[in-house]
Amino acid sequence: MTTMKEIAQATGVSVSTVSLVVNGRDQGRVKPDIAKRVRAEAKKIGYRPNPLARSLRTSHTRIIGFVSEEVATTPYAGGIIMGAQDAAARLGYMLITVSTDGVAEEEREFAALKRYGVDGFLYAKMYNQLADVPPVLRQLPVVVANGIERTGMVPSIAPDEYGIGYNATKRLINAGCQRIAYIGDQDPILAQGLRFKGYQSALGDAGITADPKLVANVGFNQEAMDAVEAMIEAGNPDGFFCFNDSRSWYVYQAAARRGLTIGRDWSLVGVDNHRVFAETLAPRLTTIELPHYEMGYWAACKLVSMIEHKDESPALHTQTRAPLPSLQAPRPALIHCQLIEKDSVR
Amino acid sequence: MTTMKEIAQATGVSVSTVSLVVNGRDQGRVKPDIAKRVRAEAKKIGYRPNPLARSLRTSHTRIIGFVSEEVATTPYAGGIIMGAQDAAARLGYMLITVSTDGVAEEEREFAALKRYGVDGFLYAKMYNQLADVPPVLRQLPVVVANGIERTGMVPSIAPDEYGIGYNATKRLINAGCQRIAYIGDQDPILAQGLRFKGYQSALGDAGITADPKLVANVGFNQEAMDAVEAMIEAGNPDGFFCFNDSRSWYVYQAAARRGLTIGRDWSLVGVDNHRVFAETLAPRLTTIELPHYEMGYWAACKLVSMIEHKDESPALHTQTRAPLPSLQAPRPALIHCQLIEKDSVR
DNA sequence: GTGAAAGCGCTAACAG
DNA sequence: CTGTTAGCGCTTTCAC
Q: Do residues B44 and B143 both lie within one domain?
């Protein structure tokens, strides 16, 4: 491990001078040629500052605490983590990850994170929902990913569920479907209501009257399968918008049983939560991927900007469905995000 | 942030004494009643040591670098991370996660991790394979998860693929199946070969002669579907062992097309990589879950023990299919793991 | 412009 | 047994 001291000795200046130079704060304070010598030596011995020592003085660490509640049981978390991780790396930050399924241990974990001097928290939810950020976390900058903070005071990013529903349905309409079914979730979670609204709007905008016989909100297993079958019998659909891959599965099964083929006899657009369809049968165009990676990426960017600009102004509450600004995530993806940002009142 | 200094002042002793006491190294060095006073004060003001300051002296941080290559594109990583995270938390460690899909940035990321003073690396692969640990990482304790390090000098944990194949097939035999098909992967990855071996052994042990007409190693999409159909026509199976959920999917489709029901007309045991079957149609007993969480958990435990016991003895190479020792992972799961451990030669 | 000195919170060597 | 001293690597006054 190379230190400033070594540079100082090699160049015959003091540690303080080295500090100024390597931190780029030598303008008009250190003679240019000395600065040059120092920089040269630093490069030569491959000097890298020790972030721990630095943070002991400055009490900021360039470490972000990635807190995910309820996430262990889902395969989605990975994408959010990866997005956050990529953004953080680009901005010179590190991620410390902590999950808190065990209710009781939360406080302990958060305390530990604080002791490690994290500069802020990225609070990720397992599925899009109204989120209550634990008060302990609020003491530092926080951003919510895959959820919307209840009070509107914390920047959040979540999938644009309405947009997903609208867009999916639109695609089915454009594909020539006349009787488009909605296969949703029986639980009244955010995504369910909003995607359904999007579905309805798209139908309305196309001058199609929604038929309640074409809607099946189901759970799991045989019961769900039966409900889908019943809906198909009653509604005779030719296109399907499916809430997630479990629901798509029921339609594929129903099709197979009738000797029909998805993509020829029936059209289907589904959200591919588990990525299983992407690698199996469904042609790419019929799946919508939730923007987990992108949410992680944006959340980390936003968090860093808050940390560095001390951007904590009291705030308005705005929503936008525009493409993510300055995101530039490296993965091409169908991005449907909804940003809840605090706007400073200027 | 509470400090030792505060405790020292409040109790009228020196910081060094406080240090000894709060670190539990006061046996026969500090008078019991002083120690008691110090401890009381520490508890009263809720003292928690500052790990950063500590590591500045000791140069170990109780931070583990979680490095996952090629992991961003799969939903599996989450489980490994969560397992590692849980184990680490229990042992008083933190996880810093880093993914390195971008080939070029690896070195930079690893260097950053080192600068943050990680005590060791957890190197996670995206699917079970022979792993080459980047040399930079080898300078610190390393454990490989979801892969087997090529030289056998690095402790590794991977799914017991053979056991998975054997067990799955055994279950089908016990369920009364006579003609058991194997639907595998056309790519010659580790899991493919080993699960197939397990399948063959189970058949052999039951006195069933393997029929090549019952084997289909396939890729994706319609081609795969067709191959599975052809195999079914040719082999007339009544039971299926499927390599993963994509492959199970083809069988479910084939069944539906024939008006058959899995679990009644056909038996199926499949590996449920994406967890989609677990929540959809398949009864629990027919799916095998890869032990991602458990691998992460074990790997972290092992790594910490190496870090703390400086367990770096040159080593034998042993394999075991026994249940994980001292694992006690909180999740109930069908655990099939293969441990590659270095054994000290004593 | 530059360096000496102090200090972040903690541990470790050594006196007493 | 306990306190003093020194120092981990860095930043930050504050004299010179």
A: no
Number of domains in chain A: 3
Strands (E), A69-155: 94-99, 120-124, 130-131, 142-145, 148-149
Query: Cβ A72–B56 below 8 Å, yes or no?
Result: no
Amino acid at B148: I
Pair B142, B185 in one domain: no
B277: nearest CA partner in chain A: A246
Task: Let me know if residue B55 belongs to a domain.
Answer: no
CA distance A94 to A97: 10
B70: left (phi over 0), alpha (psi -120 to 50) or beta: left
pLDDT for residue B283: 47
Query: Using a CB-CB distance cutoff of 8 angstroms, which residues of chain B are in contact with residue A78?
Result: 71-72, 74-78, 81
* Angstrom distances, CA of residue A131 to CA of A98, A146, A156, A341, B170: 17, 9, 9, 15, 46
Residue A205: the pLDDT is: 97
Residues of chain B with pLDDT below 50 are: 282-285, 312-337, 339-346
CATH number at residue B44: 1.10.260
Contacts of A112 in chain B (CB under 8 A): 89, 94
Residues A149 and A250 in one domain: no
Whether residue A210 sits in one domain with residue A186? yes
> What are the residue ranges in chain A where pLDDT is below 50?
282-285, 312-337, 339-346
> Does residue B342 belong to any structural domain of this protein?
no
Q: Give contacts of A65 with chain B, Cβ < 8 Å.
A: none
For B50-62, write each residue's pLDDT tens digit: 998 999 888 889 9
Distance CA B253, CA B225 (A): 8
CATH of the domain at A118: 3.40.50.2300
Which nucleotides of chain C have an atom under 7 angstroms from any protein CB? 1-5, 7-13
Residue-range definition of the domain harbouring residue B262: 161-288
Q: Tell me: the pLDDT tens digits for B174-204?
A: 888 899 999 999 999 999 999 999 999 999 9
Please check whether residue B230 lies inside any domain of the structure.
yes
Q: What would the DSSP string read from start to end of A296-317? A: HHHHHHHHHHHHHHT----B--
> What are the Cα distances from residue B30, in Å, to B9, B14, B27, B33?
17, 11, 7, 8
Please name the residue of chain A whose CA is at the shortest distance from the CA of residue B105: A89
Using only C-alpha atoms, what is the Rg of chain A? 26
Closest chain B CA to residue A75: B75
Residues B168, B282 within the same domain: yes
Nucleotide C14 C1' to residue B36 CA (A): 25
- Any strand C atom closer than 7 Å to A21 CB: no
Bases of chain D below 7 A from a protein C-beta are: 1-5, 7-13
| Amino acid, single-letter form, for residue A216 | A
Q: Do A267 and A168 share a structural domain?
A: yes
Q: pTM here?
A: 0.87
B343 belongs to a structural domain: no
* Count of CB atoms situated within 10 Å of the CB of A104: 7
User: Do residues A145 and A78 touch, judged by C-beta distance below 8 A?
Assistant: no
Residue finishing a domain among B265, B288, B311 = B288
Do both B153 and B202 map to the same domain?
no
Judgement on whether residues A265 and A188 belong to the same structural domain of the protein: yes
Q: For position B313, what pLDDT does the model report?
A: 43
- Tell me whether A245 touches chain B (CB under 8 Å): yes
- The closest of B277, B280, B281 to B289, measured between CA atoms, is B277
Number of CB atoms found within 10 A of residue A89's CB: 20
Inter-residue contact A328 to A286 (CB < 8 Å): no
Q: By the CB < 8 Å criterion, does B56 face chain A?
A: yes
